[in-house]
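We were asked to recover a plausible sequence for a given structure. The inputs and outputs are reproduced exactly as logged, with field labels preserved.

PROBLEM: sequence recovery
POSITIONS: 117
GIVEN STRUCTURE:
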């Protein structure tokens, strides 16, 4: 059973930083892709940053240059470092992991990030 547990959310002032962690119950090297998504109140869930097994990384335009996704295989953990936070970054942040053959997708329960102005 794959489990993903997010942590690191909280309340931060605009311009501040947070680092989110996503701990997996299995080796993250097994996944074909891992990503961070977020869902703000009243909005659809959106991709924030993703990393595939080959190391390719992509970011939403809204976070490029401010957020960094990384992984530590020894700790089975993926991180999202968020700098220069803005009030519009306020959302519940979810960790996602995928297998691509056959396709299976797993989600954590989310961690709330609130950025005050």
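RECOVERED SEQUENCE:
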């Amino acid at each position: 059973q794959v489990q993903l547990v997010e942590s690191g959310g909280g309340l931060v002032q605009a311009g501040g930083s947070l680092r989110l962690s996503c701990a997996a119950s299995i080796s993250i090297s097994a996944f074909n892709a891992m990503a961070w998504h977020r869902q703000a109140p009243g909005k659809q869930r959106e991709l924030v940053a993703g990393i595939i097994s080959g190391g390719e990384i992509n970011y939403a335009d809204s976070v490029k240059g401010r957020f960094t996704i990384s992984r530590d295989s020894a700790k089975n953990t993926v991180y999202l470092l968020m700098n220069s936070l803005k009030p519009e970054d306020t959302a519940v942040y979810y960790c996602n992991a995928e297998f691509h053959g056959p396709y299976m997708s797993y989600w954590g329960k989310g961690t709330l990030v609130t950025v005050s102005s």
